[in-house]
Design brief:
alpha/beta, 12 helices, 270 residues, 9 strands, 14% strand, 3-stranded mixed beta sheet, 47% helix
Length: 270
C-alpha cells in the first residue's frame, strides 16, 4: 500500500499527512488518488469527527508535481471539463478531495500549514475550513509563472480569504506571503511556533469534537451553500436550512443537559 499519504486516528481526530517530503509534498497522480481515498475513509468512519490536514516537513504542499506536468501534462493533460486525468482517473477537486467524494460538506477540516503552500497547495489549504500556520509557513500563487490556469477554485476562495486586491496581487506577481502577513490578511487563523503547530491544531480539533456533531455538520453545510449564492440570497438559504434542521426535531431535554457545560465553558473563556 502506498505511503505517500498517511492517516492516523486518535481521540476522534483523523490526522492526514501528505508524505512526499523529498518532493515538497507535490501532488502527483498517486498522491491525489491516495489522498482522496484516505480522506474519504476518514469521512465515513464512525470514530472520526474532525480531520487535520498537514504535510511532512519541510513543506505543506508545493502544488501539482511539475515533473509530471513537464513530461505528459500530468492531471492537466485533458481539458478541465473532461474531469479525468491522463491515466483515465477522475480529476478530484480539492473541496471534494479533502472532504471525501460522497460527502462534500460533512466533517470539518483544519489545515495545519507547516511550510510552503504553493499554487495547488495553496488551493488545497484554502479548501480547509480554517488554517493554523507554523511560523515557517509561506503562501504563494504561481499559476501565472508556471503558465497554467487555476481549476480548483482559487479565484473564488483566495479573494474570500484576503480580499480581491490582495488576491490579484498574489496571482499576478507570484510573490510569497509569510505566515504573519497571512495572519494579518485573514488567510490563516493562528500562527504558532513550528513545534506547536500540531498540538495547537489538535486542541482546536478537540474543541470541535466536544460540539454537537449533528448541528455542527448542518452549519458547515449551510456555510457551503451560502458561499455559492449572491449575498442577497444567502439569508434565504440559511432560513431554509434552519427550517429543515428544525423539522428534524430539537429536544429541549438535550439542550438542558448541555446547558451547564456550555455555561461553565463560556465562563472559563471570558
Amino acid at each position: 500500500m502506498s505511503d505517500v499519504v498517511l492517516l492516523e486516528v486518535a481521540d476522534r481526530i483523523a490526522t492526514v499527512t501528505l508524505n512526499r517530503p523529498e518532493a515538497r509534498n507535490a501532488m502527483s497522480r498517486e498522491l491525489i488518488a491516495r489522498l482522496g481515498d484516505l480522506v474519504g475513509e476518514a469521512d465515513t468512519r464512525d470514530d472520526v469527527d474532525v480531520l487535520i490536514l498537514t504535510g511532512a516537513d519541510p513543506a505543506f504542499c508545493a502544488g501539482l508535481d511539475l515533473k509530471e506536468l513537464g513530461v505528459d501534462g500530468g492531471v492537466l493533460r485533458r481539458p478541465p471539463d473532461n474531469r479525468r486525468d491522463g491515466a483515465g482517473r477522475d480529476i478530484v477537486e480539492p473541496r471534494r478531495l479533502v472532504r471525501g467524494p460522497t460527502l462534500p460538506t460533512s466533517k470539518p477540516i483544519i489545515g495545519a500549514v507547516n511550510g510552503v503552500a504553493v499554487t495547488g497547495g495553496l488551493e488545497l489549504a484554502l479548501n480547509c475550513d480554517f488554517l493554523v500556520a507554523s511560523e515557517r509557513a509561506r503562501f504563494a500563487d504561481t499559476h501565472s509563472r508556471v503558465g497554467v490556469h487555476p481549476l480548483w477554485g482559487l479565484t473564488v476562495t483566495l479573494p474570500q480569504a484576503v480580499g480581491i486586491r490582495r488576491a490579484r496581487e498574489m496571482s499576478t506577481t507570484g510573490n510569497f506571503v509569510d505566515a504573519h502577513r497571512a495572519l494579518a490578511w485573514g488567510l490563516v487563523n493562528h500562527v504558532v511556533d513550528h513545534d506547536q503547530l500540531l498540538p495547537c491544531a489538535r486542541r482546536l480539533a478537540a474543541d470541535v469534537v466536544s460540539s454537537d456533531q449533528h448541528a455542527l455538520r448542518a452549519i458547515l453545510a449551510t456555510y457551503e451553500a451560502t458561499s455559492r449564492v449572491p449575498g442577497a440570497d444567502a439569508r434565504d438559504v440559511e432560513t431554509r436550512a434552519a427550517a429543515v434542521f428544525q423539522r428534524g426535531g430539537v429536544d429541549p431535554a438535550d439542550i438542558e443537559r448541555r446547558r451547564g457545560a456550555i455555561v461553565d465553558r463560556g465562563r472559563s473563556q471570558v
